[in-house]
Write a structure and sequence with these properties.
Elements: E1 2-10, H1 14-27, E2 32-35, E3 52-59, E4 65-74, E5 79-87, H2 91-96, H3 104-118
Antiparallel strand pairs: 1-5, 2-3, 3-4, 4-5
Length: 119
């Protein structure tokens, strides 16, 4: 699976960003919103955790799905917002079948919509 990341800094509070994110994901018609699973297993307690860490997924209109990870880190004076679009493109989607795959193109579009709402 491929990914494309985008980030920006804002002076909005973590609480404001959290509420805005809820609204943005509702407008994006996210079918599921869940926590990011650590890949560190038993050592996950040592992971650098963001103040907000979620992954949202939804279905496209013509088949295929989108998935976006959102990380918000409070750095003191500002908050850093990172959005990561996840998905496959090209032959990987053909091999897996369009209807059962996550489209990187659709994910990038949703990532940009969510970012616009959070800015």
């Amino acid at each position: 699976m491929k990914s494309e990341s985008s980030s920006f800094d804002t002076e909005k509070s973590v609480q404001t960003l959290g509420r805005t994110l809820q609204d943005a994901l509702a407008r994006a018609r996210a079918a599921s919103i869940g926590p990011i699973q650590s890949g560190s297993g038993a050592l996950s307690q040592f992971d650098d955790k963001a103040d907000i860490e979620v992954v949202a997924q939804g279905r496209g209109l013509v088949g295929g799905s989108w998935a976006v990870q959102v990380f918000v880190r409070d750095t003191g004076q500002k908050r850093n917002v990172e959005l990561v679009a996840l998905g496959d493109s090209g032959m990987a989607r053909v091999m897996d079948g369009y209807r059962n795959s996550i489209s990187l193109q659709a994910s990038v579009k949703k990532r940009d919509e969510i970012a616009a709402a959070l800015r």
